[in-house]
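Supplementary Methods S3. Input chains for the assembly prediction are listed below.
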Amino acid sequence: GENVEQHPSTLSVQEGDSAVIKCTYSDSASNYFPWYKQELGKGPQLIIDIRSNVGEKKDQRIAVTLNKTAKHFSLHITETQPEDSAVYFCAASKGYSTLTFGKGTMLLVSP
Amino acid sequence: DSGVTQTPKHLITATGQRVTLRCSPRSGDLSVYWYQQSLDQGLQFLIQYYNGEERAKGNILERFSAQQFPDLHSELNLSSLELGDSALYFCASSRDRRSYNEQFFGPGTRLTVL
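Predicted structure tokens for the full assembly:
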């Protein structure tokens, strides 16, 4: 089955800096890669996703890149703000099969 | 707000007991997924139902079972509870497009087994 590894497990940045979270996947047939943000006491919230026919996708301060050859994808957050502090999860799936999640990255943005 | 609702928000019970968690998917979503989240295990997929039928099974214990009703809401039943079952339980739903699986999560039920 699919295996998703996520790094780093924790990330501390200063407000205004950029943050990058990286994930690798094992199944070359996977074609959908969402990112979720989970704030304390809440459910994971889908913040951006990318499909395998696209190499990069941007939405305001967040972007996701995908390298199918290397089987890795990354989340980039620019101009970080304290409200970006949360746990971020990457995931991968093939078609409409179930998502396999990474173990999460705790991002702390200090004012 | 994702549109997925879960009840109850918190549940405290004793070992050996049985509980039922409830989930209502977003309007129009046919698939419901259940996940368990504990501190050291991340998000573990338990089971998926699509339009009333079981579609996929993950790391679900035999003491746990689920069903999806004709109105598409789903219930997760946990029996013979153990201390290690204490966790957050999330439900997610999706439209089940053929090309990708966009899931939306509910707020979760926090289960504490004493």
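The mean pLDDT of chain A is 94. Chain A touches chain B through 23 residues (CB under 8 Å).
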